[in-house]
Structure formats: structure tokens, C-alpha cells
Amino acid sequence: MAKRRKRNxxxxxxxxLLLTGCGNSELEITQNDIxxxxxxxxxxxxxxxxxxxxxxxKKYYTVSFDTTTGxxxxxxxxxxxxxxxxxxxxxxxEVSTTEPVEKKKETKVETxxxxxxxxxxxxxxxxxxxxxxxxxxxxxxxxxxxxxxxCTLDEATQQYTVTFTFQDIKNICMVDAATFTVLSSVQS
Length: 188
Prior knowledge:
five-stranded antiparallel beta sheet
């Protein structure tokens, strides 16, 4: 009986928080939320992160941490959107990216028009396709959503550079050739 009462109290509390949050136009993002955004972007669990540091600035947070694959540093706006990302591999290679603060939404008509305008796709080998799939998954897109897909391997860094266009915005993703993990993503 006590477990049921405790569970019902939790449900009521969660519902109350949800309802009060819906009426609040400016949600407060906590440092834990910001850290979760950075860890999620880095595809790292809490256990995999060490030397975690969060600095609050006037308009953004600076988050840094280390993993077994390298070091990450993020500049994340108070709205929870990543503004800059720096990644330094364990072998000292550094990759920097800057993210736009706001993404443009596309209407259904624009999406259908874009799909009609697509050119036939170029064939890619199995590894290139895996890198493309990783880059698109990172962006939350499917191959049919984008145009002008290209994928090249840099032998020296063992990284694929995947480029594609979505909503007239060019996207460039760096993907690790061994793990197919997205190392960085930039929109221009």
C-alpha cells in the first residue's frame, strides 16, 4: 500500500511539474541539463567522462570533459543549443566546429519540392555508406531528406568527410573511419 501511495505521489508530482512547465515560456536549463547535452553529443556515458568542468558565462556555459577517445569542450547557449564544439583525439588531433544558434523549419510543400528536385544518388562503397548513415543519423535525417551527398576518406587522419545539403544549408560532418562515430558537424 505504501508503494502504491508513493508511486501515485510521484505521478501527481510529475504531472504538476509538466503542467507548470508548459505554461512557462522560458524554461530554466540547469548545469546538469547542459552537461547531458554535451555528453549526448559526444556519445559518451556518465561513467566514460572524467575531469568534468562546467563554467557559467553570461550567455552560455563552457563544458569540458575527457573520455577514452579524447577531450571535448563545448560552448552551449543558455537555451541548450550547442554553439561551438572542440574535440581533441587522444592522439592530439583537434577538430573544431561551430553550430548555428537556430535551425530553420521546413514546410511540407518545401520538403516535397526538394524531394522532386533530387538528383540520382551516387553509389558509395560499404564504408562510405556507413559514414553517410552515421552523419545523417547524427543530424536526425534520412538519405531521402538531403541532396548533394558526398563522402571522401582522408587517409592521413582516417576520417571521412561527409557533405550534404538540407534546406539549402550545407552540412559537413567528420566521421571516424574505424568506429563510424561522428566527430564534428558544421552547417554553413
